[in-house]
Amino acid sequence: MPNMKDLEYFCEIARTCSLTQTARLFGVSQPTVSYALKRLEAEVGSRLVTRNTSHHGLALTPSGLLFNDRASSILEQYRRAKRDVEVMSTQKIRLGLPPIIASALFPKIAVSLDRNQLLDKVNPVEVGSRRLTKLLLDDSLDMALLGTTQRVRHPKLESVPLLQSPFTIAMSVDDELADQESVSIAQIRHRRFITLDENFIHEAAFRNIARRHDFIPDVMFTSNNIELITGMLRAGLGISFLARIAIQPDMGIITKTISEAKTPQFNISLVTQQHTNIALLDDIAATIQRSVQE
């Protein structure tokens, strides 16, 4: 029976159509990946991969297509079983927290978790929502609080909407636009922006608004550190595109809606793996939902 690492190599070959890229991803030599492929082909008694002469890469044979479908399912079940056993043995849940949501909501959530003797069962992972989604799909997380512009829909994931927060233009209380009720595209078109990087859904939402209104933002600085960004805003170095929930009353920063833009909402959801039957995970998920919605 083939080992799991050989299956992982094969599924990545199927995805990239490249031995070189697969080897680079796993940090091994190309011969290691080639030998794994040969072992699999010998095991199943059929050629799985062939050269694609038109694209100078690899292509799956009909047998390879069938095997990839089955192998992907086996790997998914293996990773899920491994994760479930790890949760049962360690009694720890890996919870993804985007920095904005962590700052705005987790203190309140932590109180509820502590009250229910669950806080020490949580292992937080703090990165942007885009990265957290990938970690969930790779079975590297058990659950996450995600910020998205649309409801999370994926066959591997279950999503429970918790709350919404509008995207806004954030600025210092001393900014020249601070006294206005809202701001126009014309007023921000030539301003300097301080933005979250591509791991955050803010970047894609802002890019879509700019494209709809035909302007290229002057982004002077990007970061994945929300405290750094708010500090620069407070110092008057620029303005930013942020969900209102990211700004607290004592920050010296105010937010303004964009008057003529149909701005998407920052949707916060609790996202977990589909068909996960772990009591600890269910208890933590229920506690988080109650805490946010109280």
From TrEMBL:
<comment type="similarity">
    <text>Belongs to the LysR transcriptional regulatory family.</text>
</comment>
<dbReference type="InterPro" id="IPR050950">
    <property type="entry name" value="HTH-type_LysR_regulators"/>
</dbReference>
<dbReference type="Pfam" id="PF00126">
    <property type="entry name" value="HTH_1"/>
</dbReference>
<dbReference type="Pfam" id="PF03466">
    <property type="entry name" value="LysR_substrate"/>
</dbReference>
<keyword id="KW-0805">Transcription regulation</keyword>
<dbReference type="InterPro" id="IPR036388">
    <property type="entry name" value="WH-like_DNA-bd_sf"/>
</dbReference>
<dbReference type="InterPro" id="IPR005119">
    <property type="entry name" value="LysR_subst-bd"/>
</dbReference>
<protein>
    <submittedName>
        <fullName>LysR family transcriptional regulator</fullName>
    </submittedName>
</protein>
<dbReference type="GO" id="GO:0005829">
    <property type="term" value="C:cytosol"/>
</dbReference>
<dbReference type="InterPro" id="IPR000847">
    <property type="entry name" value="LysR_HTH_N"/>
</dbReference>
<dbReference type="GO" id="GO:0003677">
    <property type="term" value="F:DNA binding"/>
</dbReference>
<keyword id="KW-0804">Transcription</keyword>
<feature type="domain" description="HTH lysR-type">
    <location>
        <begin position="2"/>
        <end position="61"/>
    </location>
</feature>
<dbReference type="InterPro" id="IPR036390">
    <property type="entry name" value="WH_DNA-bd_sf"/>
</dbReference>
<keyword id="KW-0238">DNA-binding</keyword>
<dbReference type="GO" id="GO:0003700">
    <property type="term" value="F:DNA-binding transcription factor activity"/>
</dbReference>
